[in-house]
Amino acid sequence: MHVNESAENYLETILILSKSRPVVRSVDIAEELGFKKSSVSVAMKNLREKEHIRVTKEGFIYLTESGREIAEMIYERHEMISQWLTSIGVDPKTAVEDACRIEHVISPESFEAIKKYIRKD
To answer: Residue 120: its pLDDT value, please?
Structure first.
């Protein structure tokens, strides 16, 4: 179930937006990420073709089971890594920026080890 970093970011953004809004639309994603709506539309088409999202005729975007699984994995990595970096003295803004990069490339094994280490404290 490997997807590229861009797709992971879109799925994570849909998840985050869905926590605070009744529905998510392409325009919401474009505003959140600072992208052109046309770029988001292309990405949504790709995610829909891979069955990570479904889009209603009204344009409401919902994560499928596979999309939610990916989004939650990336979101958990982001939250845990940024909190951990902050706890060891990294400036919060830098911690969030670094977590955004790390969350996509860290292996499941390394992330699980970090998670176990953090929970041990």
So the answer is: 82
